[in-house]
Amino acid sequence: MDEPYRETPTDSGTAAGTAADAAPGEEFAECVLCREPTEYPASVKGAPLCPVCEWREAEKSACSG
């Protein structure tokens, strides 16, 4: 039996979970750097970052060489 192609979610290394994992009505986690809401559910483990801080952290690591 052939199964349809499904992309696996990419892990940015900041948190294990995505906005799709949030249950309806569930609150979003706070960013650990700026306290803004993230795209991750409040139940996510790890250190979630908001999209802006996630972008800034990626810039820092990309330009560190």
What report would you give on this structure?
- This protein is of the alpha+beta class and 65 residues long.
- The protein is built from one helix and two strands, in the order E-E-H.
- It has one helix at 51-62, and strands at residues 28-30, 37-41.
- The protein has a two-stranded antiparallel sheet with strand order 1-2.
- Strand 1 and strand 2 form a beta hairpin.
- The longest helix has 12 residues, at 51-62.
- The protein is flat, with a radius of gyration of 14 Å.
- The chain starts with 27 loop residues before the first strand and ends with a helix.
Order of helices and strands: EEH
Radius of gyration: 14 Å
Number of helices: 1
Structural class: alpha+beta
Mean pLDDT: 78
Termini gap: 48 Å
The largest sheet has its strands arranged as: 1-2
Using the alpha-carbon principal axes, give the shape.
flat
